[in-house]
Automatic annotation (TrEMBL):
Top-level taxon: Eukaryota
Originating species: Rotaria sordida
Entry keywords, A to Z: Oxidoreductase
Domain 6-phosphogluconate dehydrogenase NADP-binding: 9-158
Name of the protein in its database record: 6-phosphogluconate dehydrogenase NADP-binding domain-containing protein
Active site: K178
Protein's UniProt keywords contain Transferase: no
InterPro entries: 6-PGluconate_DH-like_C_sf, 6PGD_dom2, 6PGDH_NADP-bd, HIBADH-related, HIBADH-related_NP60_sf, NAD(P)-bd_dom_sf
Record flagged with keyword Oxidoreductase: yes
Molecular function via GO: NADP binding; oxidoreductase activity
Membership in a protein family: Belongs to the HIBADH-related family. NP60 subfamily.
Entry-linked SUPFAM superfamilies: 6-phosphogluconate dehydrogenase C-terminal domain-like, NAD(P)-binding Rossmann-fold domains
């Protein structure tokens, strides 16, 4: 891999997560190309010193490493394929890292598409919220060719200061790991909702219930979700909305179905998310599905969550 001064990196997709990734790559001294469907979102990064591309193809023609940070399987295939897609312009031996949460089946298909062009595909879904991305403290799961992972590690560390887990040579495995992480978090959020509903029905003050979670769980991200559920405050400043969380839950179910593994608790969370959306919480933070336990217990929705 070329030196930092000669290496050009592209970030494709400048949502709240992609922007944080791009900013940290630029801060670390790499030449950066950015692309977004809405071109106005590239302005701040261009003003800070990056270059802008009109299409994924144009970005790929200039870069050694491309990082896509999008929404789902379809959005990744959209920027990879077609006459203006990444693969139409990619240079031989270049590397595409997908930081998007996608299905393991999609990762397998994408690997094949890249191999046919003589280029490398690495699964690198990230774990964290927009503030974590801005701080360069995301976590990631990387899978694919080890020699290629070795070449990209210093770039990935720019935005994943929280840690990297090498998930092996099969690109599908990083996707399975990310969905497993999301299932852990979703299960804890749902548990918060159930316990707060139970304790509130028994007139236990929420600040006392909070002490239980503080005693059992110490990770700041988990404690942050506890506070959201405790205060029933699900504002969403650029993070994953409840509708977006439904996408990941459906991915978990589909991933289990693919290998014949039932995930009954995921079905429960799915129904709680649908309940939340039906109660007008679809654009709130994805943790708002914890409200379903209260709603199903006859506890009225908090006024601010209706706005």
């Amino acid at each position: 891999m070329a030196s930092k001064e000669n290496l050009i990196v592209a970030v494709l997709g400048l949502g709240s997560m992609g922007t944080g990734i791009a900013e940290n790559i630029l801060k670390n001294g790499y030449k950066l190309v950015v692309w977004n469907r809405t071109q106005s979102k590239t302005k701040a990064l261009v003003d800070a010193g990056s270059m802008s591309a009109e299409t994924p193809r144009e970005a790929a023609q200039q870069c050694d490493i491309m990082i896509s940070c999008l929404f789902d399987d379809a959005s990744v295939f959209d920027i990879v394929q077609g006459e203006n897609g990444l693969l139409a312009g990619i240079r031989k031996d270049s590397i595409h890292i997908s930081a998007t949460t996608i299905s393991p089946m999609a990762a397998t298909q994408l690997t094949k598409l890249h191999q046919e062009k003589g280029v490398h595909y690495i699964s690198g879904p990230v774990l964290g919220r927009p503030d974590t991305a801005a701080a360069g403290k995301l976590r990631t799961f990387l899978s694919g060719s080890q020699s290629v992972i070795d070449r990209i590690t210093t770039v990935v560390e720019c935005y994943c200061g929280g840690g990297l887990i090498n998930s092996g040579e099969d690109p599908a495995h990083a996707c399975v790991m990310k969905l497993s992480a999301n299932l852990c978090v979703a299960s804890i959020i749902d548990m918060y909702g159930q316990i707060y509903a139970l304790n509130e029905k028994w007139k236990v003050p929420t600040d006392i219930t909070k002490q239980l979670f503080s005693m059992l769980f110490t990770h700041p991200g988990i404690l942050a979700y506890s506070e959201k559920v405790r205060n029933r405050e699900y504002t969403n400043p650029g993070g994953v909305a409840l509708r977006g969380g439904l996408k990941d839950i459906n991915l978990m179910l589909h991933t289990g179905e693919e290998v014949g593994v039932p995930l009954p608790f995921v079905n429960v969370i799915h129904d709680h998310i649908v309940t939340g959306i039906a109660n007008g919480l679809g654009d709130k933070d994805w943790s708002a599905f914890a409200e379903s336990a209260r709603l199903n217990s006859g506890i009225q929705q908090k006024e601010s969550n209706n706005s």
